[in-house]
Amino acid sequence: MDTELLPFSQYLESFKETLKSVFYQRDNIEQFIQKRGFPALVLRDIMAKNPLSVGIPKEYGGRGVIMRECLAMLDAASYESLPLSLTFGINIALFLEPVGKYGSEEARKSIFNRFMTQQNMGGLMITEPDFGSDALSMQTYCEQDGTNYHVKGTKHWQGLTGMADYWLITSRKKLDNGDLARDIDFFVCDVQQSQQRIIVEEYYNNLGLFPIPYGKNKIDVIIPQSYKLIPESSGLNLMMDLLHRSRYQFPGMGMGFIRRMLDEAIAHCKSRMVSGKPLIQLDQVQHQINKIQSAFTVCSAMCARSAAYAGVEKNLSPDAIEANSMKAYVTDLMQMAAQVLTQLKGANGYKAESVSARGIIDSRPFRIFEGSNDMLYTQIFEMVSKLMVRQKNMNLLSFLKGFKLTQQVAERFDSLVDFVITPKMPQRKSVDMGKILSRIVSANHVFMMETKGFRQDLVANCIENLKHEVAMLVSSYQFTSAIQPVEDYKESSSWFHC
Ligand SMILES: Cc1cc2nc3c(=O)[nH]c(=O)nc-3n(C[C@H](O)[C@H](O)[C@H](O)COP(=O)(O)OP(=O)(O)OC[C@H]3O[C@@H](n4cnc5c(N)ncnc54)[C@H](O)[C@@H]3O)c2cc1C
User: Fold this and answer.
1) What is the pLDDT of residue 459?
2) Name one GO cellular component term (predicted).
3) The dihedral sign for the CA sequence 428, 432, 435, 440
4) pLDDT digits over 363-422, tens only?
5) For residues 50 and 3, is the Cβ–Cβ distance under 8 A?
6) Is 449 exposed, middle or buried (0-12, 13-18, 19+ CB in 10 A)?
7) pLDDT grade, residue 30 (50/70/90)?
């Protein structure tokens, strides 16, 4: 507990030392990474540093939920281990922050005390077997009985299944006629209480993120009213504030991960000799490393923006365009960085224990969970096109020049985006447009970071890369295609008879 009193920069350095010690001296991350769960001693030493204290308010003994500090912890962890960073992300963004903001005094006092003194953990349950992307149709329900609530249903794919001490469970109120209400209620379930045990029906064989258990959870629990979160307006509003703040924190998990990919790529390509020359002298290799470096700069800019903007005091429910842009784009960048590094490392990159191969597998689901990227890109475009219609301005460049999230950089993309768009178009086009918008919103973050002193050569390279990406996406957007998959394709389609 003593380290919590240190100034944050000192605390962070000492936390990084602990990570180095547990991952490379006390244990060997390359060996344990393919086994399920963190080795007990590794987790014990990490948690002894109380890393989750950054997500706990000062009045309960924590470091005060300062967004910059939360992001810095995620960043430090993901340089060494993406699963560890995701474990922190789950606890901080999906549990501690919403409990701190919307929990009753009674619940907060007891929960934060157990996090600070017993290294407890908490996760979030939204997804159900039949309702994932369509989460608002969830069937888990709650019924009030005096001062308690009965919550019943089935959830699956929860990070920390069978391991967390607390769960934030989402449900819909059962109405008198048996229907379920539209709004969502949140309950904190304490699995240490006899009436609040959650039965894990099955553990899943997840492809990566081995230290984190996933599975199917049967919920049939009685929860006191004081453990129901109290929304400011509706539960849906609470949910959007929670999910958006979490999406604003994805760059924290991306940051250390992408920096690691970059460091490994530069180190490898400087030392690997091919045809008598270091790989890094090849133009295509430089191009590939530039892509990772540009991802590093974009992700840094997102972190700087989130640190300044996305604090718990703010209601982020209206900030869907920015939150979705960050989540979708940074997770695409994480996957790209791991793929590029694996290629640059050649055959050795394909060893299961290599940091790049692990990186591909571990970062892959980030594009699926907390809103699949295709859905988020579609939503970005839909929201922007509504604004354009309202302003009666369908010229993209002209709109971006006046839009608060893009106005600083719109001109740099002038010739690329100077065209008129139609609000109604096939979804594949909306996805292209969502991607274009997310890249330009990110360029704006990069520009803003430069004004605060970030080095200019990285910014210039990054903006150039973003323009290249936008040019390719605009070309895809303008290519007219409505081809449909041929579902019944078996007849006359064998090469053998041709
Ligand atoms: C590693 C991992 C960790 C997770 N952690 C948690 C957790 O801690 N808590 C929790 O509650 N859940 C968690 N999930 C569940 C996750 O949030 C869901 O898997 C996700 O929301 C997608 O739901 P689904 O799997 O039912 O897919 P579906 O809803 O069936 O969607 C499948 C695919 O269809 C496409 N699709 C769906 N809707 C659209 C759309 N509108 N536009 C375009 N394409 C679309 C997308 O490609 C999508 O990936 C986790 C999942 C994974 C893999």
Assistant:
1) 98
2) plasma membrane
3) negative
4) 999 999 999 999 999 999 999 999 999 999 999 999 999 999 999 999 999 999 999 999
5) yes
6) buried
7) confident
- Measured in degrees and rounded to the nearest 5, phi and psi for residue 51 equal -60, -25
Domain of 466, CATH number, reads 1.20.140.10
Report if residue 498 sits inside a domain: no
Q: How far apart are the CA of 134 and the centre of ligand 1, in A?
A: 9
368 Cβ inside 6 Å of ligand 1: yes
pLDDT, tens only, 220-230:
999 999 999 99
Same domain (yes/no): 315, 354 = yes
pLDDT band at 171 (very low <50, low <70, confident <90, very high): very high
Atom of ligand 1 nearest to the CA of 372: 49
Confidence tier at 423 by pLDDT (50, 70, 90): confident
Which of 340, 323, 336 lies closest to 445 in space, CA to CA?
323
User: Which residue out of 184, 335, 368, 374 has the highest number of ligand 1 atoms within 8 Å of its CB and is therefore the one to mutate?
Assistant: 368
Q: Please give the Cα distance from 366 to 374 (Å, whole number).
A: 12
| Minimum CA distance residue for ligand 1 atom 32 | 133
Query: How far, in Å, from the CA of 9 to the mean position of ligand 1?
Result: 36
CA–centroid distance, residue 132 to ligand 1 (Å): 5
181 Cβ closer than 6 Å to some ligand 1 atom: no
Final residue of a structural domain among 203, 232, 261: 232
Between the CA of 133 and the centroid of ligand 1 the distance, in Å, is 5
What are the two backbone dihedrals, phi and then psi, of residue 233, each rounded to the nearest 5 degrees? Answer: -125, -95
- Of the candidates 256, 358, 342, the residue with the CA atom closest to the CA atom of residue 34: 358
Q: Is 124 in the pocket of ligand 1 (CB under 6 A)?
A: yes
* Model pLDDT, residue 34: 76
Q: What is the CATH number of the domain that holds 86?
A: 1.10.540.10
> How many independent structural domains does the chain possess?
3
**268/360 same-domain check:** yes
Contact 144, 96 (CB under 8 A): no
- Are residues 360 and 303 both part of a single domain? yes
Q: What is the pLDDT of residues 105-137, one digit of tens each?
A: 999 999 999 999 999 999 999 999 999 999 999
123 lines ligand 1 (CB under 6 A): yes
The pTM of this model reads 0.98
Distance 324 CA to ligand 1 centre (A): 15
**Range of the structural domain that residue 115 is part of:** 3-121
Q: Which two tokens stand for residue 87?
A: 């474990």
Q: Indicate which atom in ligand 1 lies nearest the CA of residue 368.
A: 49
What is the CATH classification number for the domain harbouring 184?
A: 2.40.110.10
Among 121, 138, 157, the domain-final residue is 121
